[in-house]
Amino acid sequence: MATLRELKGRIGSVASSEKITGAMKMISSAKMHKAELALKQLFPFRRQIETIIANLLSADAEFSSPLLEPREVRRVCVAVWGSDDGLCGAYNANIFKRLLPLIAEYRRKYGDDVEITVVPVGAKICKAVSKLSVPRLKVSVPEGIDSKSIGNDVKRFLEDLCGKFTGGDFDKVDILYMHYRSVSRQELRVEPLLPVEQSAFAVDGVGQSNRPYIFEPDVNTIFRSVLPMFLLAVMQDVFTENRASEQAARVMAMQSANDNAKKLLEQLRLEYNKLRQQSITTELLDILGGQIR
Predict the structure, then answer these.
(1) For the structural domain made of 31-251, what CATH number should be given?
(2) Could you give the C-alpha distances from 82 to 106, 127, 142, 194, in angstroms and in order?
(3) What does DSSP assign to residue 171?
(4) Which residues does 164 contact at the CB level (< 8 Å), separation at least 6?
């Protein structure tokens, strides 16, 4: 049985843990709200680009872009987003578990000879992916890119993927990431990035406007300029949603840890009070026994 001193030490340790998890929850919550705000700010930009492309597609014109050209798939690239830091529950484990059947799906769809390149973003997912031992599978860690990358780094990452696609290193590029819905709900998504499919522009009711447009210099030139902007908007969304989802997972993990610490603290205090009461009762009995003698 633990002594009063031992129980008091354990109570102090658990109480400190409760304060730490509570503080970490508040920090993660603030970071999550910041990522939420960034998503809201990105939405109008992406929606406007999608509307412009929808209007271009409605025009009676020929379109051509190396980013649109489908080809026989012999080399597949899948970019996977995870976290750089821990303490976010099963966030990275769930992403990794989805990657494994995705790789098997590529084998079934494109044949056993298909070459698969996994591009992990985030230190934790990099560590998990590096342990994969699958034939004809290569892991390519992007230099200078992590889950917190923004701005020019995101653009450079996208340009590298597009360059390898147009250069023939990849015949298909998919993205695997955690889509952010709310603090308690995130869902894994696998979406095609390259070649760009026209169905990508017809989401959430996006469509062409009824207003007449005059395109200068010509529709195809505008389309070639706007398409990379659309892909950049998509990539910025993915990085931001990954950050929001990571922090949401960390908020839930810290909330769970905080609740467990509170329960343990209550149990320890109850045990401490019982032991203290027992000690006081024993001392009183000893005093009374001495007086009787």
Answers:
(1) 3.40.1380.10
(2) 21, 10, 13, 21
(3) S
(4) 77, 170
Residue 202's contacts (CB-CB under 8 Å, 6 or more residues apart) are 54
Q: pLDDT digit of tens for each residue in the chain (293 aa)? A: 567 777 778 888 878 888 888 888 888 889 888 888 988 888 888 888 888 777 777 766 677 788 888 899 999 999 999 999 988 889 999 999 999 999 999 999 999 999 999 999 999 999 999 988 888 999 999 999 999 999 899 999 999 999 999 999 999 999 999 999 888 889 999 999 999 887 766 544 545 455 566 677 777 788 888 889 999 999 999 999 999 999 999 998 888 888 888 888 888 888 878 888 888 888 777 777 766 55
H or E element that contains 37: helix 4-58
pTM: 0.84
**Which amino acid does the sequence have at 36?**
E
Q: Which two tokens stand for residue 125?
A: 């997912």
Please count the helices (runs of H) and the strands (runs of E) in the chain.
5, 5
Domain coordinates in residue numbering, the chain? 31-251
CB atoms within 10 A of CB 162: 21
* Of 113, 42, 114, the residue nearest 78 (C-alpha): 114
Q: What secondary structure does DSSP assign to 220-275, as a single string?
A: HHHHHHHHHHHHHHHHHHHHHHHHHHHHHHHHHHHHHHHHHHHHHHHHHHHHHHHH
| Integer Cα distance of 66 and 165 in angstroms | 9
Q: Give the residue carrying structure tokens 């699958």.
A: 134
